[in-house]
Amino acid sequence: MQAQLNGPVMYAICGGIIFAVALICVIFLVRAYRAGLAIGMDKKKMDLAITSSATFSLLPSVGILLGVIALSGSLGIPLPWLRLSVIGALHYETQVAEAAAEAVGLPGLSASAMTAQAFVTIALVMGVCIMWGMVFSIIFNRSYTKKLKNPSPKKTGGGLMSEFADTAMTAMFIGLVSAYIGSYIGGLVSGQGLFTFRGDWMPLVAVFFSGAAMAGFTWLVEKKKIEWLEGFSVAGSMLVGMASVVLAGLMF
Amino acid sequence: MTSEEKNSMFEKYEAGTHRLGMILSSVTLVLLLSAPFLMGAVLGTMPDLGAAGKAFLAIGLVYLVSCIAEYLIYVPILGSGGSYLAFITGNLINMKIPCAMNARDIVGAKTGTPENEIIATLSIATSSLVTIVVLALGVLLLIPLQPILQQPALQPAFDYVVPALFGAMAYKYYRKHMHIAVWPLLVMSVLFMLVPSLESATSFMIIPSGALAIGIAYLYYRRGKKKGGPL
Fold first, then answer.
1. Do A85 and B175 touch (CB under 8 A)?
2. Of all residues in chain B, what percent carry a pLDDT higher than 70?
3. What is the mean pLDDT of residues A27-37?
4. H helical segments located in chain A
5. Are B208 and B215 in contact (CB under 8 A)?
6. Both A89 and A187 in a single domain?
7. Which of A137, A169, A189 is the last residue of a domain?
8. Is residue A145 situated within a structural domain?
9. Which residues of B touch A252 (CB under 8 A)?
10. Residue A61 belongs to a domain
11. How far is B223 from chain A (nearest CA, A)?
12. Closest approach of chain A CAs to the CA of B38, in angstroms?
């Protein structure tokens, strides 16, 4: 079965779709860059946004690649490659694939039990479960972004809300980060039984050391004026956080 | 260039972005949904639609709700171009959103401005291309690379890539807003301690956590306004 799942036609199907998505990215990139220049944006700022985004994405992309490797054992290489390049989300894929495998009667995501029909059904479920963001974009993006630009004064408080929008976005992100860090703290305290403090503490090691590294980068950028470091600060901090987990694992 | 000319040029760009975004998202959707059937044709079978429906009811509905929340929350951050691209390429929470926020902060673009729209699109497109290239190279090199990447000693590093990301982002966002951050962090920690099973629904907990942070930020904002000082 694995030989069929890794066959050249499978690579051609998945590679073709990924290539189309890469082209879409290039089209959006070039249009945005040209529009930025046309409205008088600083070229250096746009270049900085591109380089910082590229460095930022390198490490998480390697993590996503590991997701491909992890799924390749049961689903072959081409399908996980497609799933994690187009709409995929590293955290969701295994869960959805597992549920789909169970629905088609397999004991779970197992290479030895995989059949051709189970495989294509899993592929369909993986696509359908996570396509909704794209569907909503197609249907609602035009009207939703228009509404965001021109909020109804009656409903939103007009100027007050637009002044507050920037802070609200930062607060939303604080909420996002807090939910995850809260889950790591809760996992440590009650992950292996309520208030036993025997849960996984490694996520907090990663959080602590990557946060400390970020503080170091910020100090170098702001106090020592090494501004070029800014584009590498998040990726560098993540690397420190990830390395700290490896070291902690070796030490304890 | 006058501000009117700039606005008119940007409006044209945005209208084009919506047109292009709708067409290209539709094309991607068709390609994505037809792939399992194409693969089935190659393998001499077709998807079991009954089982697919059952699996969708078991787990797909959860993602549908999650997608609605993600859509409402992330479009204001990503702008129109960025959101079309982000929803095509995925990996929003673990990469695209922090990446766009990071680029926006480095450049100093403000929410809702044309600059923010352009920077978010550049950031998401670049991030997506980097992932596509890394994955393509990785797949090409998968056989020789697999033994190195799957070294048992290295595995924990990649298992904790997301906490490492949130540690860095926490310092970035908490340090100037600790008075806001302390509340969602405290509430979420206590909640996850009391109901450990919530861990599998962390992405849903972003909604109450974000709402709490926005509510507290708003209270400080109002108080700052009354005193005439900053937040």
1. no
2. 91
3. 95
4. 2-5, 8-38, 43-75, 78-85, 90-103, 116-129, 132-149, 153-156, 159-190, 202-222, 230-251
5. no
6. no
7. A137
8. no
9. none
10. yes
11. 13
12. 8
A165/B122 Cβ within 8 A:
no
Tokens 């056989």 sit on residue: B143
Partner-chain contact B167 A184, CB within 8 Å: no
Chain A contact probe: residue of B45, B96, B151, B188 with most A CBs at under 10 A: B188
**Tens-place pLDDT, residues A112-163:** 778 899 999 999 998 898 889 899 999 999 998 888 776 655 544 445 555 6
- Domains held by chain B: number: 1
Query: Looking at CA atoms only, how far is residue A111 from chain B in angstroms?
Result: 16
Contact across the interface for B89 and A25, Cβ inside 8 Å: yes
Select from B48, B89, B154 the Cβ nearest to the Cβ of A117.
B48
CA distance readout (Å), B198 to A186, B91, B208: 9, 21, 13
Domain span holding position B100? 63-140
What pLDDT does A104 receive?
83
The DSSP call for residue A228 is: G
Q: Which residues of A touch B203 (CB under 8 A)?
A: 91
Least confident window among A71-85, A159-173, A228-242: A159-173
Are the beta carbons of A122 and A104 closer than 8 angstroms? Answer: yes
Mind listing the pLDDT tens digit for each residue in B44-94? 999 999 988 888 887 777 678 778 877 888 888 888 999 999 999 988 877
Contacts of A82 in chain B (CB under 8 A): 35
Q: Token pair of A184, please?
A: 């790591």
Q: Using CA atoms, how far apart are residues B95 and B86, in angstroms rounded to an integer? A: 10
